[in-house]
Amino acid sequence: MTPFVNTVVVGGGQAGLAVSHYLTDHAINHVVLEQADRPADAWRNRRWDSFTPNTPRWQSRVPGVRYGDDDPDGFMPKHEVVAHLDELARRLPVRTRARVTNIRRYGGNGCYVIKTSEGETISAHNVVVATGLYQSPKIPALAQDLPSHIKQLHSDTYRNPDQLLPGAVLVVGSAQSGAQIAEELYESGRKVYLATGRAGRTPRRYRGKDANWWFARMGQYDRKVSELPSPKAKFSGKPHISGTKGGHTINLQQFARDGVTLLGRLAGVEGDIVRLKGDLHDNLATADRAEAEFVKAVDSYVASTGMSAPAEALPLLREGFDQGILMELDLAAAGITNVIWATGYDWTPRSAN
Known about the structure:
Blueprint: E1 4-10, H1 14-25, E2 30-33, H2 41-45, H3 78-89, E3 94-95, E4 100-106, E5 111-116, E6 121-129, E7 136-137, E8 151-154, E9 168-172, H4 176-187, E10 192-195, E11 205-206, E12 209-210, H5 211-217, H6 252-257, E13 261-263, E14 266-270, E15 273-276, H7 280-305, H8 319-322, E16 328-330, H9 331-334, E17 336-341, E18 345-346
Parallel strand pairs: 1-2, 1-6, 2-3, 8-17, 9-10, 9-17, 10-13
Antiparallel strand pairs: 4-5, 5-6, 7-18, 11-12, 14-15, 15-16
């Protein structure tokens, strides 16, 4: 006989566990099906060792787990996030190594039939798919043209500097992941080349408060898609910012001051020669402009509300503009033996018959 539950939750990550918590609170019969050996697989196995959420604890809480109330503005390292999710999962009906292979409606009774890789069939009134939109690492096709001796990793599989071959590193992509990995690498003593993109920059703190506090106070997180500049803005890249070291600002201009060679976007590869676009200074200007717009918005909000917030002038760095624009990079001459692709993820839709 096919077992029946009210709700099947597909995916035992942060979203799936949160859904399960509230279903449990309402005494709704359900099961969470997770394909990995343990819940929270992405946090556990698909983040680098020093990864820290960019959101402070007050904004990163998982329901049903107690947090250190003495440090709501601090940032949780990866291991703390995993520990909280494990604590939550132990109280929930989570089944691991249960990969869902098929979901289909059954006749006209409004039920779903869910099949797993183990050949099990489950019936349910409701199905919640909590598998995330972007799961497949995206690597540009030109990666195939790099010399075979170059070690290539996506940010999904990067863990720490010791994982790399001796030599310099080319990091491709300067949004949050690429910028944070590049910072870790050059601070570990590596020579780093960073191919930049159009990600903006937000100061970690401004006028006495964290940037995310300001965004929440000004209602940025409450906006509907219809209120954005365009529907695509919902998926726009996140600004440079970091939760590591207690939370700090990431600035590509500071990278240049610290010895990182900044580049434009990649245009092609021919043997040891990487061809580059000449957009470096435009990319730097985009990041600077995003910070200036943030500052202007906060200043206007403080003035309009009359709230008390100490005035502050952020440092104006220009070292990135002082670097010449390279149109090509000789990997061998630069001693580059590693390439890290911080180029995001693809959404791979899965059909449910």
